[in-house]
């Protein structure tokens, strides 16, 4: 019995430490429960407000149907989305309205959206899209 106790303690401690770094499972309801408004985007030299002078882009997940809708800050869109754990794949081929957009933000937004391959909800409840493990876009919940 005494020989088993140290082994048990080591096994217990190892399982505790390995679970500390694990990512919690994100509820699909969390993504679908609210619309999300863009507050940060990487990869541009233009100020955020200059990219989206009239309206900030939004995302609206309808995961029960495998659909991601939203607005680019100018044009509305709807596309298919697939999620597996914390991995995300957004289809580039989708219908979109065709208004002329000021500021160049729409192209940057769509470019970064399609490159997103992972997502998380951070400690502040914000949706973070990642590209190769690096934060590329961040959204906060909005009330419709």
From TrEMBL:
InterPro entries: DUF306_Meta_HslJ (IPR005184), HslJ-like_sf (IPR038670), Hsp_HslJ-like (IPR053147). Keywords: Signal. The keyword Signal applies. Residues 1-21 form the signal peptide. Gene3D superfamilies: 2.40.128.270. The keyword Metal-binding does not apply. Pfam families: META (PF03724). Residues 30-132 form the DUF306 domain. This is DUF306 domain-containing protein. It comes from Imtechella halotolerans K1.
